[in-house]
Amino acid sequence: MDIAKGLIAIGAGLAVMTGMMTGIGEGFVAGKAVEAIGRNPEAEGKIRSTMILGIALSETCAIYGLLVAILLIFVF
Amino acid sequence: MDIAKGLIAIGAGLAVMTGMMTGIGEGFVAGKAVEAIGRNPEAEGKIRSTMILGIALSETCAIYGLLVAILLIFVF
Amino acid sequence: MDIAKGLIAIGAGLAVMTGMMTGIGEGFVAGKAVEAIGRNPEAEGKIRSTMILGIALSETCAIYGLLVAILLIFVF
Amino acid sequence: MDIAKGLIAIGAGLAVMTGMMTGIGEGFVAGKAVEAIGRNPEAEGKIRSTMILGIALSETCAIYGLLVAILLIFVF
Amino acid sequence: MDIAKGLIAIGAGLAVMTGMMTGIGEGFVAGKAVEAIGRNPEAEGKIRSTMILGIALSETCAIYGLLVAILLIFVF
Amino acid sequence: MDIAKGLIAIGAGLAVMTGMMTGIGEGFVAGKAVEAIGRNPEAEGKIRSTMILGIALSETCAIYGLLVAILLIFVF
Amino acid sequence: MDIAKGLIAIGAGLAVMTGMMTGIGEGFVAGKAVEAIGRNPEAEGKIRSTMILGIALSETCAIYGLLVAILLIFVF
Amino acid sequence: MDIAKGLIAIGAGLAVMTGMMTGIGEGFVAGKAVEAIGRNPEAEGKIRSTMILGIALSETCAIYGLLVAILLIFVF
Amino acid sequence: MDIAKGLIAIGAGLAVMTGMMTGIGEGFVAGKAVEAIGRNPEAEGKIRSTMILGIALSETCAIYGLLVAILLIFVF
Amino acid sequence: MDIAKGLIAIGAGLAVMTGMMTGIGEGFVAGKAVEAIGRNPEAEGKIRSTMILGIALSETCAIYGLLVAILLIFVF
Amino acid sequence: MDIAKGLIAIGAGLAVMTGMMTGIGEGFVAGKAVEAIGRNPEAEGKIRSTMILGIALSETCAIYGLLVAILLIFVF
């Protein structure tokens, strides 16, 4: 192996870290959903569908990072 | 491969990390939307459209990073 | 051992750090669930199932990181 | 390629990370706007225009970073 | 000793840092449990069992990191 | 190009990152302004002028960083 | 001394940093306990025992890090 | 140019980053001022003068960093 | 002096940084204690003793780091 | 110039960053003072003096960092 | 000067950064004290003494870091 390959591995590791904070964001969405259901259990359907939509939109950031990581490992 | 290529890979990894915090921001928007729907389920339409607008505006930051990452990988 | 292998180890270490913040996010979900049960103990079933769903969705981010780490250690 | 070019790529990657936290800030603005509309749906016009003004002012920070990144890649 | 071994040690150190934020998340769960018991002491059983479940689920992130650290030290 | 130039590029990248957190701070100001208008729509003028004053004062930090980045790129 | 030993020392330093955030988490638990006692002084026994249980569970993360640090210094 | 100059540039970049968080702190002051004016518009004078005093005191931290950065660039 | 000694110094610097966040955690405990006394001044004794117990438990994390730093400086 | 001088410059840059978070802490004090004056304008004297005392005590941390930075630049 | 001296300077810079977050923690204590005085001005004596005790306990973390920094500069 040569050193450049090792540096690319670090780059890939950094790239996938993009999803790091998404974990907080999604946890926040889910936490607020749990709180809202505790207050208003009848609105469970609406709350859960908005929760899943919000998490799906947030997930895009993590996927950008995964994409660049995969791209660095297999293509670069 | 040469070392410079490996360093560029690290640069690209750092660049795409720009989107890292956007995940929190978007999660915050979605979490507040979930909370607001739990309180006031009739205003669901307005809340969800503002949520998507807010997430779209926040997404721009993540896209700047992705753009610079792509630019470093394919153009630089 | 050669240096590149050491650099890949650093890359793997960075990659698995993706799951770092997920720990906060999941803790937030669980904390809010605990709070909601303290307020409204009868809704325990709904709250706990939403909590587990939210944690499962957040877990995906940590798994992306673990996947890239494993991929860097065994495949790259 | 020479090593200096690789180091400049890292510099550009760091520069564009300036926009990282702006994603949280803008998410906070949008989240508060969603919350305010949930409480007071008639004031939607004023709230949304203040939200867009606030996001535009915050965006300047991300743009400083993008500017320095572009400057490092194409001019330096 | 050779340098690669030192770099692997750094990688292992980074990997185990995954559990860093889990400490906040779990502290948040426990803090909310303490708060909920202060408000509603009769629901202590339910609150404490949900707290332990939530902490166990959050712990998985820290364990991913520990696993990769052990894997880098003994296997890589 | 020589290596020192690359290192200066990294220094400039770090310097402009000073503005990173300003994005959160300004987002906080704007978010609170949105919230205050949602509660008290008649005070919109006073709130918006204080918001712009506060953002202008916070912006100084980001400008210090931009200044040092420009200074490192063109003068150093 | 050789360089690898120095790098292992850095690895150990990073590993023990795992406990860094645990300090916040535990402080949060204790802070909430203090708050709950201020509100409801008769429930002091239950609150304090849950506080100690929560801190003990959070402490595990810090101990993983200490373990890997010790392992890197004396075994690796 | 020689390498030491490049390293000093990195040092200066790090030094000016001291002001990074000040942006949050000042944003917090301004955000709270906006909130307080929204609640109590007659106290605008007192609130705004305390806000400017608080921002001026916080600004000192950013100025320490700028000072050391300037000192590293021109004197060291 | 040789380079390894310098790297060990960096390791020790990182190790003692473990106590960094403990400062926030302990500040949180003390802040909540101040708040609770402001609300309920008669419970000052109980609050202050729980505060000191909580700070003592949090302090352990900072001490792990100090221990590893001392260990790296004098023993390694 | 020699390389060691450049590394000392980085050390000084890191040292002065100690004051980074102090900016948040002081901003928090000032923000809370602004909030308290908005609620209770007659207590302005007491609030402002406590605010200045609190900021002065927090400032010590930033001064430790500045001291070590100055010490590294001029004495080391 | 030799390189090891420069690396020790970086280690000292990192060590003194331990006090970084203490600034937030102490700011939190002072901010809460300001808030509590705004609510309950007669309890000023008790609040201020608890505030100073809490800040003194938090300060220990910053002092560990300063101690290791001084130790690295003058003894190591």
TrEMBL record, chains A, B, C, D, E, F, G, H, I, J, K:
> HAMAP family annotated for this entry?
ATP_synth_c_bact
Q: Provide the gene name from the record.
A: atpE
Spell out the PANTHER family in the cross-references.
ATP SYNTHASE LIPID-BINDING PROTEIN, MITOCHONDRIAL, ATPASE PROTEIN 9
User: What high-level taxonomic lineage is stated for the organism?
Assistant: Bacteria, Bacillati, Bacillota, Erysipelotrichia, Erysipelotrichales
Pfam families, A to Z: ATP-synt_C
Which UniProt keywords are present, listed alphabetically?
Answer: ATP synthesis, Cell membrane, CF(0), Hydrogen ion transport, Hydrolase, Ion transport, Lipid-binding, Membrane, Transmembrane, Transmembrane helix, Transport
Q: What does this protein do?
A: F(1)F(0) ATP synthase produces ATP from ADP in the presence of a proton or sodium gradient. F-type ATPases consist of two structural domains, F(1) containing the extramembraneous catalytic core and F(0) containing the membrane proton channel, linked together by a central stalk and a peripheral stalk. During catalysis, ATP synthesis in the catalytic domain of F(1) is coupled via a rotary mechanism of the central stalk subunits to proton translocation. Key component of the F(0) channel; it plays a direct role in translocation across the membrane. A homomeric c-ring of between 10-14 subunits forms the central stalk rotor element with the F(1) delta and epsilon subunits.
**Transmembrane residue ranges:** 6-30, 51-75
UniProt organism field: Holdemania filiformis
Which portions of this protein are annotated as coiled-coil regions?
none
Q: Where is this site: Reversibly protonated during proton transport?
A: 59
Cellular component terms (Gene Ontology):
plasma membrane; proton-transporting ATP synthase complex; proton-transporting two-sector ATPase complex, proton-transporting domain
Which InterPro entries has this protein been placed in? ATP_synth_csu_bac/chlpt, ATP_synth_F0_csu, ATP_synth_F0_csu_DDCD_BS, ATPase_proteolipid_c-like_dom, F/V-ATP_Csub_sf
Task: Give the family this protein belongs to, as stated in its UniProt record.
Answer: Belongs to the ATPase C chain family.
Query: Which GO molecular function, any one, fits this protein according to its record?
Result: hydrolase activity
Its subcellular locations are:
Cell membrane; Membrane
- Stretches assigned to the V-ATPase proteolipid subunit C-like domain: 10-72
**Topology in membrane:** Multi-pass membrane protein
Q: What name goes with this protein?
A: ATP synthase subunit c
